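Duplicate of earlier report; SET domain-containing protein 9 input re-posted below.
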Amino acid sequence: MLKKLATMWHQYKYRFVPWIAVNLRNRKLRSVPKGLSDKVITDEVLQECIVRFFTALNSVNECNRLSDINQQILETGKHYSDNMRMNDLSKESNCNKNDNLLLTKFESIVKNEENVDITVLYKRNLKIMKTVLGFSIERTASYLKDGGYGVQVTDGTVPKGAVVALYPGTIYEPFEPIFFQSLHNQFIFRCIDGVYIDGNDRGISKMIYRSSAFRDRLSLESTYDLTWLTQYLVNPMAVGQYVNNQSNEYPANVAYQEFEITNSFPHSLRKYLPNVHYSPYSMESHMSERNLRVVALISLREIQKGEELFSSYFTVVHS
Ligand SMILES: C[S@@+](CC[C@H](N)C(=O)[O-])C[C@H]1O[C@@H](n2cnc3c(N)ncnc32)[C@H](O)[C@@H]1O
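Output:
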């Protein structure tokens, strides 16, 4: 009992900064000297790389079908909410039922009961990644003892300074409520300006991401990727939340880089972005003109096939 309480207290202390909870004895800092930027590559290079990869995903016929999984989910939502409106049910009840129907649809697609062979299409997208970027990555068992899952380069070689992965999840401004989502949640990433990204693909976090994405849909076109909530990703880059912290044996080979997706980002490619705002509006701007925070993992050196990705959960930028 005492041991259980002590474990709970240990998790409680660190739950808002879960990366600090790991491996305290072996922790290593990524230190960015005064005057230098935290950015490993420029924003222009980062955006160019993402756009190039997303364009390739989009241009392959079968991949369009795969990205249509999002579309199917949204369409089901529209038909359902139309019916609900006709029945003149309360708004709250609409939302709940609509959500449940969408979840059922989503799960059946994932279980492959729908006519979409997502396993084959996921593998194809990995091949596109290899062709366009020269490497592919996948979530695998970590090399670390008790490290759970990690992310490995499963094909090709990652050059230095490449966008390797994206950190998916719901974006919370520093003043937005994240308490319940944060309990026992080791996937909450804290940006330098205090913005949080909840990359947990299970439980309440999953429900919040889904409902936020449905809320923000513009017309019938999907604007966010939902498939990172499953093991069959439209965008194979969206596994950044599974990258483990570096250790003495495995020094960091990737670093987090924060980036803003602005209005200039091609609308047709937004369906590959694995992030959504928790709130529909910010303090200053309307949703349609609001930037979207994206966190990318950038390689710090060449990374060979078979190597696991390791980041630094502790980054200090000296001011
Ligand atoms: C963001 S998650 C990374 C994915 C995680 N490995 C999993 O399977 O879900 C962070 C958690 O991974 C584990 N982890 C990360 N780096 C580690 C390390 N160097 N040694 C041991 N465990 C680590 C810890 O349990 C930590 O709370």
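The chain has seven helices and 13 strands.

Merging into the original ticket.
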